[in-house]
Design brief:
The protein contains 7 helices and 10 strands. By secondary structure, it is of the alpha/beta class.
Length: about 260
C-alpha cells in the first residue's frame, strides 16, 4: 500500500514575481516507512510537506495520500511543527486533547486510554497536569508529538520539529521519536536540513536540491533498529553521511574548502 504518491508535482507562488518552490517531484512512499526529506534551508522541503498535509494546493502534477487524490487536508494525518504551539493556559493533557475535542463523536472516555499510553510512552505521565511554562523545550515537543498522535493517524508529518532545540536535547529527541515511531508504526515524513539526523532516523532519505526543490537522490538506509546514538560512529553510518554530503557539495550547497 502506498502512503504518498507524487507525480510531477510542481508548486509556484504568484505575486509581483512568480516564485517556483517545487519542480517535477515524483515519489512513492510505502505505508509504515520513516522517510527523511533532506535539503538546504529554503529549498522547498517544508512546502512539499504542506502540500502532503493539504495545506497548500499543488500547481501542477498529482498528489495522492493513502491512495486518495488530495482535495484538502486528509483526516488521517498528524502534524508537528518546529515550534510546539502549545496553549499556555491549558495543561499538557488539555493541550494534547485539543486535537480531538473538535472531532465528530468525540468521547473523552474513549480517548483516555490512548492519552494515558502516549503520556507514558513519552515520559510525560507525571507532568500531565503541568502547564507549558513548567516544561523544558524537549518536553514541550514531546507534548506536541502526543497531540499529533492522539487521533491515531496513519501518517505523521514533522517539519523540522527539533530545529529550535539545543544539541544534547536534539540528540535525545532523535532517540525518543525513533522509539515512539517503532511503537506506533505510522508512516512518518520528517523534514530536516541535518544530514546525520536524516540518516539516523530514516528508512529512506530523499535528498532535495536548492529551490526549486527537485529530487536529487532517494537513498535507502540499511542500518539495524533500534538505533543508538553510538551508531553515528559506525563506518556504515559515515558512508551514508559522506555520500549525501558529496551530493550537496556537487550542487554547491556545501563548500568543502570552507569546512
Amino acid at each position: 500500500m502506498t502512503a504518498v504518491s507524487a507525480r510531477g508535482v510542481r508548486k509556484e507562488y504568484q505575486g509581483r514575481q512568480t516564485i517556483l518552490a517545487i519542480e517535477d517531484i515524483s515519489l512513492e512512499i510505502p505505508k509504515g516507512e520513516f522517510v527523511s526529506i533532506l535539503g538546504p534551508s529554503g529549498c522547498g522541503k517544508s512546502t512539499f510537506l504542506r502540500c502532503v498535509a493539504g495545506l497548500e494546493k499543488v500547481t501542477a502534477g498529482s498528489l495522492c495520500v493513502n491512495e486518495q487524490e488530495l482535495k484538502g487536508p486528509p483526516d488521517d494525518i498528524g502534524m508537528v511543527f518546529q515550534r510546539d504551539a502549545l496553549l499556555d493556559w491549558r495543561t499538557v493533557s488539555q493541550n494534547i486533547m485539543l486535537a480531538v475535542e473538535f472531532a465528530k463523536n468525540y468521547s473523552r472516555r474513549d480517548t483516555a486510554p490512548l492519552l494515558t499510553k502516549l503520556l507514558k510512552l513519552t515520559g510525560l505521565a507525571e507532568f500531565a497536569d503541568r502547564y507549558p511554562s513548567q516544561l523544558s523545550g524537549g518536553m514541550r515537543q514531546r507534548a506536541a508529538i502526543c497531540r499529533a498522535l492522539i487521533n491515531s493517524p496513519s501518517m505523521l508529518l514533522m517539519d523540522e520539529p527539533f530545529g529550535a532545540l539545543d544539541a544534547l536535547t536534539r540528540d535525545q529527541m532523535n532517540v525518543e521519536i525513533q522509539r515512539i515511531w517503532l511503537d506506533v508504526r505510522s508512516t512518518c515524513l520528517f523534514v530536516t536540513h541535518s544530514i546525520p539526523e536524516s540518516v539516523f532516523l530514516a528508512d529512506t532519505v530523499v535528498v532535495l536540491s536548492p529551490r526549486p526543490a527537485r529530487i536529487v537522490a532517494v537513498i535507502d538506509i540499511d542500518l539495524p533498529r533500534p538505533r543508538k546514538l553510538a551508531i553515528r560512529e559506525a563506518a556504515e553510518f559515515g558512508t551514508y553521511v559522506r555520500r549525501i554530503r558529496a551530493l550537496f557539495e556537487s550542487m554547491g550547497v556545501i563548500d568543502e574548502h570552507d569546512e
